[in-house]
Amino acid sequence: MKNIRAMLATVGRIAAPYFRSEDKWAGRGLLSAVVVIELLLVAIDVLVNQWQNRFYRSIQDYNWDSFVTEIWIFVGLASAFVTLAVYKLYLNQWLQIRWRQWLTKHYLGEWLHGATHYRMQLSGEAADNPDQRMTEDVKTFVEQTLALGLGLLSSVVTLFSFIVILWGLSNAAPMHISGVDLAIPGYLVWGALIYAILGTALTHWIGSPLVNLNFEQQRYEADFRFNLVRVRENSEQIALLKGEGAERTRLLQRFGAVVGNWYAIMSRTKRVTGFQASYSQAAVIFPYVLVAPAYFAKKIQLGDMMQTGSAFSSVQGALSYFVTAYRSIAEWRAVVARLDGFEMSIASGAQRPTQAEAITIAPADGGREISLDQLLVKLPNGTPLVTADDFTIRASERLLVTGPSGSGKSTLFRAIAGIWPFGKGKVAIPGKAKLMMLPQRPYFPVGPLHDAIAYPAERDAFQPAQIRDALVAVGLPKLAERLDEDGHWNRMLSLGEQQRLGMARALLHAPDYLFLDEATASLDEPSEGRLYRLIEEKLPATTVVSIGHRSTLQAFHDRNVTLVRDGDVHVVQAVGEPASSEAR
User: Which of 90, 362, 386, 502: CA 20 to 30 A from 377?
Assistant: First the structure.
């Protein structure tokens, strides 16, 4: 019961926000309509049960007029049933897509808020494959929550509706054994209850491992799909290294986990299905076995017997809801667990910068400089990496950052950008300053080239003429006529062309601070020099901070700082100045 309450609390936490959102009235209205239709369908089942009694009595009594009347009554009930069933499905699907749309937008907003998606990866959070969480898991959660919820509602209402009928039939058809009537009030109800309890207990005992097996299956499937995408994205490097054999082996190993877990699901499902099928088949004959002695003793008529069988089936079916829906419930619980883990991971990533042990990003007190105050940058495992104290990046200067590989230069950039929370200290940035980080491999979204260069701004932020001028300036005149062409530009262009395209983006956005993390390393030195002179010409007021290893870069920078090892950390130190332990 504790596990059930915890799971229902989790479901409520995931589901309830939609019905309190801006789309709440549409959601509540559709849900209410579906619930009302479900209740009406149960009412029709009750009327059909009563109709069966009259119909079979008319057959037993050879009453033609009554038989014809009951046929027309059935036509009316069947027409109403079909109409309600159609609109139940239609409104249910309408509610599904609205709920799924809102939930997907909600998760996308939380995941892409600030740098939460990045911090989740750094922290090694449990939410693997967020793409699956926001596609398959959200879709399955919405569909199965509605299906199982409405199924449970229907079962409860059916139970109470038919218990009254079955109790009355128990009195009308007393248990008859060896010519003796046994007065057991509601014995048919008790028979259905005992039958359902035994079936539910045995089903849970047989099928409980399916919850974890379904959870693992989703994880293995997502992991296999993710690695297939990685191979596709890195196909050039794999081909150059002739790594197809190694990739095939690794992918088959991951698919082996999919297959192995699937065999375990097959084995467990076979047992559950075998029991469910036996249980369902026995339920067909069980009520007639109970009531047949009374019928053959001529205590009841054929119509009463058929109505009893139908009512017993309805009660037994309602009580056996968890037996028949067990596999769906197992899959649903796995999906709930995955979405719960995703939400917890998002919350952890979002709260990481607000914790006591975190780097603080604050507005500067006047001036146009970026200042680092008692800054200590750490790795996610807590190992100190880089430290800087009372260090200033002055406005409009050109600053070159050097240091050995692995000393933390790129991580220092990430801390200044506000996406690296591990550490302590303060980074003060002018309030309205625009920062742009250009890494060695820039990112371009799949789509028109115009949109890829304008990113992250909207398409209409820059006119086509502006983008063409920027492309010509950075040495990509052939791309100037391809602005409306769709493409996967990170795959279609060489790394050198991508770096030129990144520079074109910088020219268009004209940031106050431009951080270049080996952003021209794939270009030859003359081309690199032309791009730096272009920045000086086009962005004279922009502060440029570069990471690079070429000595030729010093000619394009006013100041040079290096990361020098001092004990366990690297200290930011101006070239020519002695290392100071106070800088730590």
Answer: 502
